[in-house]
Design goal:
single chain, 0% strand, mainly alpha
């Protein structure tokens, strides 16, 4: 397969948009954590198992978002290196870095999928104390 300078460049819009989405998820999660922290501090001394379940879920989701962003950045860096290697005509190594860029992007998306599943679990935890009869 022959790749040109434009081939790795095709990843830039996709990676940029996904990184923006990851940042928005992080900011939304930070807001949820602040609200949950306030709820935790304002409770009357009784321990609410729902809050503890949410905190555990949020800690996992924070780790996942961090990994999503790390692999997204690694993907764009590998694409930039691939472009440079194409520029200096080191095609074999450029192909390796382009393949690594695609793999990093894929891993980032897998972390995103897991985080999405956990975010729906978080909503289920929040709604678990609501009766259907209410």
């Amino acid at each position: 397969m022959d790749i040109t300078l434009n081939t790795p460049a095709l990843l830039f819009p996709a990676i940029s948009l996904i990184m923006l989405a990851y940042t928005n998820r992080f900011l939304a999660l930070a807001n949820v954590i602040r609200n949950l922290h306030d709820r935790y501090k304002n409770q009357d001394g009784s321990t609410n198992p729902l809050i503890h379940a949410q905190i555990k879920n949020l800690k996992t989701r924070i780790r996942l978002i961090k990994n999503m962003q790390i692999f997204g950045v690694m993907s764009i860096l590998a694409a930039i290196i691939a472009m440079y290697l194409i520029y200096i005509s080191s095609m074999y190594t450029a192909r390796l870095f382009f393949a690594a860029s695609l793999l990093f992007f894929m891993v980032s998306l897998v972390f995103s999928l897991v985080e999405l599943i956990l975010s729906t679990k978080s909503l289920e935890i929040e709604l678990s104390d609501v009766n259907e009869d209410d």
